[in-house]
Specification:
This protein is 58% helix and 16% strand. The chain is of the alpha+beta class. It has two domains: 5-128, 2-Layer Sandwich (Alpha-Beta Plaits), CATH 3.30.70.1730; 129-173. Strands 2-3-1-4-5 form a five-stranded antiparallel β-sheet. The chain is elongated, with a radius of gyration of 26 Å. This is Large ribosomal subunit protein uL10.
Length: 173
């Protein structure tokens, strides 16, 4: 069903908003994916905190005109889909994981902030730890000195207790 002028305008605004509000936007081809496969990918991306949307190439090129996304306008050829997330690692992780299990998904590239990415750049982003993983490791590092200090303070008392127990056992023998 063809889109009317107002629908096209809304789609252009939406695509421009995706590029403005997300840290990373990826472009991939989905030639031959079934509706259920696209729905599965959308579901996985939504659970991770991102999104997936099939876009019309002409409207996408209009939406990125004059924005940082203009650097990847050449990727909008063929059956194009956008994957996006606020976290720069989420969309690449989900998409590369899905692409490994489905040869019909071809990652073309994307953009992170102002930096255009090729397929290798997307792969390297996917191999990085996510924001949550980094925050949990920082929290662990911050908590480690406190637990070490607590065990160091408690150690002399336990050492004295074990020495007294040993002395008591010697006298009893």
């Amino acid at each position: 069903m063809p889109m009317d002028r107002s629908q096209k305008s809304e789609m252009v605004d939406w695509i421009g908003n995706v590029f403005d509000t997300n840290e990373v936007v990826l472009v991939f081809h989905n030639a031959g994916l079934t509706v259920s496969q696209v729905a599965e990918l959308r579901s996985q991306m939504r659970e991770a905190g991102g999104g997936v949307k099939v876009v019309k190439n002409r409207l996408a090129k209009i939406a990125v005109n004059g924005k940082s996304g203009e650097k990847i306008a050449g990727l909008f050829k063929g059956p194009t889909v956008l994957a996006y997330s606020e976290d720069p690692v989420t969309a690449p992780k989900v998409l590369t994981k899905y692409a490994k299990g489905n040869d019909k998904v071809v990652i073309l590239g994307g953009i992170m902030g102002e930096t255009p990415l090729d397929e290798a750049g997307v792969q390297s982003l996917a191999s990085m730890p996510s924001r949550e993983e980094i925050l949990s490791s920082i929290a662990g590092m911050l908590g480690a000195p406190a637990s070490n200090l607590a065990s160091a303070i408690g150690a002399p008392a336990s050492n004295i207790a074990s020495i007294l127990k040993t002395l008591e056992e010697r006298e009893a023998a």
